[in-house]
Amino acid sequence: MGIVFVFLSASVLAVFTGPGGFSLNEAGDLLVFRVLRLVIGICAGGVLGVVGGALQGLLSNPLVDPWTLGVASGAAFGATLAIVSGMGSSVVLPIAGFIGALLAIGLVYLFARNGGVLPVTRLVLAGVVVSFLFSSLVMLVIVLSRRTIGEAVYLMMGSLGVVVTKSSVRMLVGSLFLALVGCGWLIFHARELDIISFNEEVALSLGVDTPRLTRTVFLVGSLVVAMVVVWTGAIGFIGLIVPHLVRMIFGPRHSLVLPGSFLLGAGLLIMADVAVRNLTPSGLPLSVVTALIGVPFFIYLLRTKV
Amino acid sequence: MSAISIRELVFGYRQRVFFEKIDLEVESGEFLGIIGPNGSGKSTLLRLVGGILRVWKGEVRLLMRPIHQLTRREVARIVAFVPQESSFAFEWKVSDVVLMGRNPFLKVWEQPSVNDWRIVEAAMIQTGVYELRDESINEVSAGERQRVILARALVQQPEILLLDEATSHLDMFHRVEILQILSCLRAQGKTILFVSHDLNEAAVSCSRILLLSQGRIVACDTPAKVITAELIERCYGIAPVMTTHPLNRLPQVLFPAF
Question: Which of A129, A291, B78, B202 is most buried as measured by Cβ atoms within 10 A of its Cβ?
Fold first, then answer.
């Protein structure tokens, strides 16, 4: 109930507040702009929440998310390459993002693998390293192509202020649709995620094809994250915190955690965006706000849960 | 009927061969103890039977059917596995943990039915954890947790139960409790493979004992024929002090005097 309330009130605020105020007469274009921004926010926050929840279950580790596994910055790097080569509004953008995300997860996998097994501590460590690598590459590419550092900052730290043109709107809708389908797939496999969160060996003995599930969740997760990150940049902490909050309310079942994470992730991201738009005249990267909420929460988790 | 049939099994880790042509037959309703020193291959053999590890060469048959022709879900309806220890990253309710044993019977998206819940309840009653059903799995004691895992295994309605040192973390009272449940299950016709470090526990509870050493089968026979001073010394490298159990005349091994 609370989650639905957060989601709805955030949506209302997102549509009716912001620079430019609100008046009934000349609100047409402004309203379209805000609704579009709201839709992007819902998808991005929801997707990050769902993928974060699924990855935490898959690796039975409460500290992983699309950011700590390097997927988000990999996608941001792919998007940066597409943007600086002038293909930011073509189909190249989402594809480049997806390839970047796959590259990141592939590197993480290579670094972390030890014999045939994949120890989760090494995976997280490799993820953080790869994440840094790709964030730096984003910065490097932006600077080398003589663009402003500001653009890199937004790519690495997120913003819902994507400039939508006639040519890119179809691409945007297509990406978001793919992202939602991917989330649906993850929710569909909720019970298998429940079981694999016990332990890989136990999951095998309970009839779950763990190698296949692991591969597909990584693949679908990368795709889904890439489809939003190429538009919004890599937004941190939503994927980490939101599933934990939802677990505290609903318990650990993925059939509740994943849909709940979608709603709460969407709600929190929109709230962060509302705060960014209303409290600062020039806007702030979203990760600044999500991290300001996220870091204290992360520390709280470390002290109590792990 | 043959419950498990292993023919010329070859398996190893990395490039090194560990099991070289192992053969083993286990009849339905047997309670087979698997003993041997650390690193002798007890747990590995159990995992090969459970399909958790894949054999390199040779064949494992479950209820006459070659394991490589079965899907994971089919295997999980024949064999259930109880590990030494279970840790849980999240706060699962006891009844949720047990319910996961129904997974091999449910389609990916299918929700458990009333009948599934009935099976879950029956298993929790049988292992004596029904009263704990709403507790968090991380808050029950080690002995209780192991009985929860045993209930999860029963919910799979398996013909074959694999226990990998399932009692080694428990005190004597809780061990006896688990062994009593196992002997009930055996009376119901289940086949049980029981890996143990405790020779005395194996001697009094198993119908047959398999002694492994460095990936080879040293002996496989009744407790009286396997738990002997000569075989124990050969495999474990220490001369044991042997005695017999006053009630059932089965062999028991004592620590040497220091």
Answer: B202
Q: State the pTM of this model.
A: 0.88
ipTM: 0.89
Residues in A 252-271 with any Cβ partner in B closer than 8 A:
252-253
Interchain contact, B100 vs A61, CB within 8 Å = no
List the domain range (segments joined by +) for residue A97. Answer: 2-304
> With an 8 Å Cβ cutoff, is B60 touching chain A?
no
CB atoms A207 and B100 under 8 Å: no
CATH number of B2-254: 3.40.50.300
Q: pLDDT digits over A17-50, tens only?
A: 665 555 545 556 777 778 888 899 999 999 999 9
β-sheet bridge partners, residue B221 = B209
Looking at the 3D structure of chain A, how many domains does it have? 1
Residue that has been written with the tokens 């994440």 in this structure: A131
CA distances from B154 to A141, A238, B25, B181 (A): 58, 39, 23, 11
State the smallest CA–CA distance between residue A295 and chain B in angstroms: 21
Residues B57, A269: Cα–Cα separation, whole Å? 54
Identify the pLDDT of residue A33.
79
For chain B, the domains span 2-254
Q: Answer yes or no: do A208 and B103 touch at CB < 8 A.
A: yes
What is the number of alpha carbons within 13 Å of residue B25 lying toward its C-beta? 4
In chain A, residues with a C-beta closer than 8 Å to the C-beta of B104 are 206-207
Taking contacts as CB-CB distances below 8 angstroms, the residues of chain B near A199 are 83, 86-87
Closest-CA distance, B103 to chain A, in angstroms, reads: 6
What's the pLDDT tens digit per position in B69-108? 999 999 999 999 999 888 888 889 999 999 999 999 999 8
Strand partners for B161: B80, B192
List the single residue in B14, B72, B91 with the smallest CB-CB distance to A251.
B91
Q: What are B154's two structure tokens?
A: 């029963």
